[in-house]
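Example 3.
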Amino acid sequence: MIAENVIAAFVSVFTPHNLLLMSIGVLAGLVAGAIPGFTITMAVVLTLPFTFGMAPVEGLSTMIGVFVGALTGGLFACALIGIPGTPSAIATTFDAFPMARAGRPGLALGIGIWASFFAGIISAALLAVLAPSLAAVGLEFGPWDYFMLIAFALTMAASLAGENLLKGLIAGVLGLLFACVGEDRINGVARFTYGIEALKSGFDFLPVLVGLFAFSQLLSDLADPEAARVPMLPKGSKVARVDHWGGITQSLRHWPSLIRSTLIGLFVGILPAVGGSVSNILAWDQEKKASKHPERFGSGIPEGVIASEAANNSTAGGALITLMALGIPGDVVTAIMLGALTIHNVAPSPTFISTYPNIAYAIIIAYFLSNFVTLALQGVALRMFVMLMRIPLYAMASVILFYCAIGVFSLNNSIDDIWTLLAFGVLGYVMMKTGFPLAPMILGVVLGPIAETNLSRSLATDTDLSLFFLRPWAMFFLILGVFSVFFPWYQSERGKARWTPYYMPALGLTLSIPLFLMQGWARPVFGLVLVAVSGYFAWRSLTRRDPGLPTASSAE
Amino acid sequence: MRRPATDAVIGLVLLVLCAELYRETFHFRVPPFATMSVGAWPRFVLVVLALLCVGLIVQAMTRRTDALAASSAPSARPISHRNALICFGLFAAFLVSLHWLGMLIAGVLFVFIMQEMMGPRSFRSRLFHAAIALVAVGGMWSLFTFALRVILPEGLLLRL
């Protein structure tokens, strides 16, 4: 059965038309990802209008191409001008730029490209294995569990706002509120329309996304009038020649770094709402800690480039696992893909893989293939990147703003949608300037209707509200949600406050409770293992006196 | 002092908005046989939002003293909103003009004027801006009209 589905998906992906679209997507992603200020999200959002007229497999293949291409493209700007092309490549700058400045730009690019490629392939293989298994778990979810999973995704996204947790939560809830505008999906009753006809159908996903991410981002980039007028690369800049052989040998020589960072990236991707912007820094940091020569990190060593690039590329695979298995976006980019699927009347849920096997396996194959296409097109993309970087930002921005308008219009042939784009552009700009993160809001907009539908379903099934807290999976996600709310404090106080060594053991111990409540033997056994491991770390923290940490007596 | 004060103002504005929207939820049509009230979910969302806004206001008030101390330090360069305001204004004008000029002409004018206002002003730059506006907008208009078969708005004046 699986073999049949894979073959059918191969047939649909391997058409010349689809391969061409995917190649265009990869090339666009590579170039867009390379331009500082143009995030991966922006690149995928701007691709969306082109995919309306395509079949779901074609549209998704194109978007995955953009996604994978942009993840690798972020490397170009890091290595050549020392500015991260995307937030997913911030840690790449730490070592790729010093390496390039030391006269080895080709090697920096080569290592980054090949580490990205190897990580992408490993991640694709794990996607193929893990997504169906996780989907089988997802089938156990009732509407109560699904509702709590969405709540967890939102708290997780908000917790990434760091010190601005409250603002992150407000942004997420505002997203839920915006999703309420228009006719509700269950009863068709108009809400918050105030008699305005245009609001009856609610805010369409695309103008909201483009407004929040592309429009507001562009305006923020233009804030400095002088910088907006100067090209990022001076005329006469030459294209560095990629050292492929050096890239391959260095990536394989440092294979433990490659594998470790790939797994970190994959794990971060699987977490709902967390993406490459977190995984690359986390992997680089972990690699530094695991290294025998941590002091050399940041001076241009291959392990630093490998860690960041492997992690950010494998995050895509992890995010796709969550999207396909649970119908929950693994990060903002997969949130856009979720929106694209709904535009094509495909509803992502835990039954996604079994209901739409052709599309599901096509996503896996497209992701796998995109890594090869990325490798093949990086030379062309590098030349295009150097060419584009000679154009001043203000000129590029004005063209892209027009493109935003035309793209949004093409969704429903409606000028109202462009007004929505402008309104959310203003809102996004104000939010950015006042320190409100945008990602939780997008997740709120995307997940709001799903949350409401599941709440309604759960109450229709049983009016007992305790099921939201006492069902094993609901309790599992509730615990994760509560701990994710406290995560920013844990991060800021780590190593300083006495309670921080107990945070992770406490999480493990409390998570074991729902595991014990689950049926079968495997999960309770896993719960026991979790108790043992958490207990060990809690005991170790109790017995180990860290001289750097304040003790109860010293605090008094 | 600016950020905490701004946060408090945002919190207050959102609270007022919550109150108004909460009031509005009582005016939703009540459908027969609904398992969950149409207003239940929005009310839940609004209550959570209102609580978070109160939290934001409290946080802004408690951080005020620290911020006041920080404000005595030499401040960084103020953020300029000039370009953003120009963009918003021009984009709104572009939208209003769509009805008369259509997507192609309004688009060319929008891209050209925006470059003129943000870029250097010389004869050579003007040529560069005009070329970019014509090629980029014309190219995209052709792509959407002929390849993607999207019927873009035509202007009343020139039917383009």
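Residues 10 and 76 of chain B are 23 Å apart (CA to CA). Residues 82-118 of chain B form the longest helix (37 residues).
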